Amino acid sequence: MMTFDQILFYALAVIAVLSAIMVITRRNPVHSALFLITTLFCVAGIYLQLHAEFLAAVQVIVYVGGIMVLFLFVIMLVNLETLSQERRFNRQWHIAILVSVVLLVEFGTIIWRGKAALQLPANQPLMDTLTTNNSEQLGVVLYQQYMLPFEIASFLLLVAIIGAVILAKRRLSSDGK
Amino acid sequence: MFNQYFQPNDILIIYPELLLALFAMGVMIIDLFLDRAWKVLNAFTALVGIAYAAYALYRLKSNALNLSGYNHAILNDSFAIYFQFVFLIATALVILISARYLSIEGENRGDYYALILLSLIGMNFMVMGIDLITLYIALELMAVSEYILVGYLRTNRQSNEAAMKFFLLGAFSSGILLYGISLLYGISGSTDLRVIAQRLAERPSHDPIALVAVVTLTAGLLFKIGGVPFHQWLPDAYEGAPSTITTFISVAPKAASFALILRIFIVGLKPLETSWVPVLSVVCVLTMTLGNITAISQSNIKRLLAYSSIAHAGYLLLGLIAGNEYGITGIAIYFLVYAFMNIGIWTLVVAMRRKDLIGDQIQDMAGMIYKNPGAAVLMLVFLLSLAGIPPTAGFIGKYYLFASVIQTHHYVLAVIAVLNAAISLYYYFRVVVVMFMSEKTDEEKMTLSPGVLTSLAVTLVFTLLIGIYPEPFIRFAQNSLSLFQ
User: Fold this and answer.
1) What is the mean pLDDT of chain B?
2) With 60 as the cut, is the pLDDT of residue B389 above it?
3) Do A148 and B134 touch (CB under 8 A)?
4) Please, which of A44, A80, B165, B363 could form a disulfide with A56 given CB 3.0 to 4.6 Å?
5) One domain, residues A151 and A96
6) Which domain holds residue B260?
7) How high is the pLDDT of residue A128?
8) Lowest mean pLDDT among A173-177, B94-98, B248-252, B364-368
9) How deeply is A7 buried, as exposed, middle or buried, from its count of CB atoms within 10 A (0-12, 13-18, 19+)?
10) Alpha carbons A20 and B179: distance in angstroms, whole number
11) Are A29 and A96 within one domain?
């Protein structure tokens, strides 16, 4: 018998995966973007179930609120007419699906057989979610334990900005010629 | 009061990276004030930055050895220091040959050097990291810089296409790698490689989930070094990228990815050795054989060298399969040697680029001995070294790698590797035949810039020196054995 928590989890997970598939199969990019929003919402729901309320809120505000709006803006700027007539997949997609399904079944069975391994050790204390603040815990992890990767990520963003500038310049110069 | 956040040690250990970051941003700012004719100063700024970082690293070697920092995210052992020196040398040589090439392409800007320095920071953290999250972010910092640099020639379709392919496949492989990392975290509850090794050792030997984690992790990592069957991106990226960038990505990022693989497999996944050695053995044989056989039929020198670089990744895997002291020393010395010989040969390819000629067909080299005897002889030395013929440096590298698998009784692997080395002689000498035996097709001579000349001189001297008098370099490479501690 499944508990309510489990039912909720499976519902969210199934919706997330299904809409993720829809994201890559829809012809209209606006539809894809909307399905991506659904996926992100479901993931936020799963975060909530894990008692990561702050993370869930950030997920909704940053991804659904900020990044998806940017996505939609970009899609509006692209010429949708020609985009929807282009072929989405190349000729190898039959083989690709076959290989993916075989891999999925393999990984599925192997993980199912070893599922006991993923249980937490009995003596491991779960994070005390009731007494300490959720955002406080996240802050401690981010700025103490993983401070260096956090700082390296800022360099990653710098590189991404430089790359975007180079790409944008490209368009200007080729139009000018 | 800040003690719980970070310690003075932390800043000390990342001092070379801080300097590199400072100079990366400095290059971009100074670039704004430079006239078109003075853009070559950007290369100087970058070189000064690398020299500073090398000096800081040298100081760290005596001051802060085996210190770990940032809550055990990084470890400054002599393995990390050794590989960082290799990166600094390789990057400095690439910057030397870049200035002239970029001005011929009309893309001489500061952001090129900034991106190279930033990817160098990523590589440095890749060899220092002992925490999966740090390692992954550092890998991405290196990779994203590479994607941009491969597509750096804005008006060149081939360069754009190469960057797109590289980016898409790179992102895909990162996804697979992350899946493996998440499974490892799920099993062990930690991202620290040493804790992961402990937890894995406590588990039964043929644990199904650990197997999936190893397989996905291996697939993601093999992509980064271009191991068969994850090599398809490599020839396209090498051919389409600006030649100087091909020089760069064929040496430093490959060494960084290999160091990352060593750290993960020898430190983190050691308890699962019985499951990854067979997988890697198969990949190793395929990589060597396919790389060498496909290289035979190439008519483009960049593609030929790309396939040869796939084959070299196969030889390097021998050292990891052996996993003993000889193997690790072999990989370390091989990358030092590879940095010199490979950059040497690519420098010549870069130098063949002229205003009207790309110079990447093997036929473009016809009769080079009559036109540029010096360049032809240099090319011969580098090709001999790539093939592993004594007294060049390539022999020392191959000797260590082949000897390591013989020590661990992988005789079949050793035989296949030697056969492959023989195949590779054929296509390396095809280039030699065209250079020495064909009639010249045009009269135009190569013009060598001071940077290219310096780079050629350095690479030639070391390719011969390591081959003739290897002892000090082997002792230097044995620094990497701290991996086993």
Assistant:
1) 90
2) yes
3) yes
4) A44
5) no
6) 7-484
7) 56
8) A173-177
9) exposed
10) 17
11) yes
| pLDDT tens digits, A102-141 | 999 998 898 888 777 666 655 555 555 556 677 888 888 8
Residues of A with CB below 8 A from B144's CB? 156, 159-160, 163
Residue A122 belongs to a domain? no
**Contact criterion met (CB below 8 Å) for B88 and B57:** yes
- Domain of A39, CATH number, reads 1.20.120.1200
d(CA B212, CA A113): 12
How many domains does chain A fold into? 2
Give the pLDDT score at A171: 52
Q: Which amino acid is at B41?
A: L
Tokens encoding B253:
């990022």
Both A95 and A166 in a single domain?
A: no
Predicted pLDDT of residue B109: 86
pLDDT band of B101, cuts 50, 70, 90: confident
Q: Could you identify the residue written with the tokens 């470890």? A: B75
Q: What tokens appear for B314 in the block? A: 């196969």
Residue in the block written with tokens 């044995």? B478
| Interchain pair A158, B5: CB under 8 A | no
Angle between helices B78-105 and B450-468 (to 10 degrees): 150
pLDDT at B414: 94
**Residue B81: which of B332, B261, B420, B328 has the closest Cα?**
B332
Of the given ranges (A83-97, B68-82, B197-211), which has the lowest mean pLDDT? A83-97
In chain B, residues with a C-beta closer than 8 Å to the C-beta of A139 are: none
- Does the residue B271 lie in any domain? yes
Q: Do A4 and A67 share a domain, yes or no?
A: yes
Same domain? For A91 and A172 the reply is no
The total number of structural domains that make up chain B = 1
Chain B stretch 381-440, residues whose beta carbon is closer than 8 A to a beta carbon of chain A: none
Three-class DSSP category at B442: coil
- B209 lies within 8 A of chain A by CB: yes
* Residues 139-158 of chain B whose Cβ lies under 8 A from any Cβ of chain A: 140-141, 144-145, 147-148, 151-152, 154-155
Q: Is A6 part of any domain?
A: yes
In a domain, B438, yes or no: yes
Alpha-carbon distance of B300 to B347, in angstroms, equals: 16
Residue A107 belongs to a domain: no
Mean pLDDT on B139-157: 92
Choose among B417, B412, B382: nearest CA to B399.
B417
| Cβ–Cβ < 8 Å for B134, A152 | yes
Give the pair of three-digit tokens for residue B189. Answer: 């509850």
Assess if residue B232 is contained within a domain.
Answer: yes
Cα separation, B267 vs B260, in Å, equals 10
The neighbouring-strand residues paired with B13 are: none
Please answer yes or no on whether B71 and A144 come within 8 Å at the CB atom.
Answer: yes
What token pair was written down for B325? 């002291």
Looking at the fold, whether A18 and A96 belong to one and the same domain comes out as yes
Q: Quick check: B135 and A146 in contact, CB under 8 A?
A: no
Residue B2 belongs to a domain:
no
pLDDT for res A175: 41
Whether ipTM exceeds 0.95? no
pLDDT category at A172 given cuts 50, 70, 90 is very low
Range of the structural domain that residue A26 is part of: 1-102
* Pair (A162, A89) in one structural domain: no
